Prior knowledge:
globular, two-stranded antiparallel sheet, 6-stranded mixed sheet, alpha/beta, 11 helices
Amino acid sequence: MPQPAPCPRRTHHPPGAVHRLVNTPGGRIHLVEQGTGPLVLLVHGFPESWYSWRHQLPALAAAGYRAVAIDVRGYGRSAKPAATDAYRMLAHVADNTAVVHALGEGTATVIGHDWGSLIAANSALLRPDVFTAVGLLSVPYSPRGEHRPTDGFARIGGDEEFYVSYFQTPGRAEAEIEGDVRGWLAGFYTGLTGSTLTPEEHGRLFFVPPGARLADRFPTGPLPAWLTGTDLDVYSGEFERSGLTGALNRYRTSTGTGRTSPPGTERPSPSPPSSSAARSTPPPHGWRTPSTPTRPPSPACPPPTSSKAAATGSSRNAPTRSTGC
């Protein structure tokens, strides 16, 4: 199968890696790949980009894998649909599945960090025929529950507002962030670094008092050791170019009119959070591979036999919207 044409080389391009744009039913997805071998798909969180995997790409390639880091829909050079509803979980599962097919592969290990962990978990649950192993970083697997996440988030804030609730109103967080993207990201990333705040300060970091901004409690001072000024320039440059609305819409669809996971994912995790089953491709060395196979998708969100097939990425020519999940 012909491979997507490479994009022009960039200054922050990892040595030996290639940028590509691939077409999916939901729009283009930008990715960076390195190495040959079994496919490992890397899915970032908020507020990040493919660049978060810049160290893992060469490491996985050296270990004998084809490592691919995507810009999630709404980020970087990937498509940014205008409709908030276009960022529901099934759209992200469809994107991941379509990327695997566009690269000429049939299966992949999928690894996610932060929001990417939830996308990775649902990709493996809904399409175990494609995603034969899964790794979750930072955010553990949580099944779909009975209550809307917004209800829980509203309760835990008390007199203050939890950051996920703060992100719900379109334009509100954008107005805070987009005036100084680099400064906001610096404070956000520094605040998430364990040594920069006291435990009490960390506990208050993502709660917003009435009339305040989320950034009001961010720490100031030097960047943490893991983040260079050049790294910060890359992240801020991506968001200054694309804006924050696409990235924030993932919060708005998961906790406002919808839930984090689609129907059919109410089951407990079929394996430890670091792995999932159905072994046709071995996962990276050292990862656990449980003997119990992943359960098939729920009839509520089946793979390729109905209009829902488009929502899970099984048909490249079908429409991408799903009315059910």
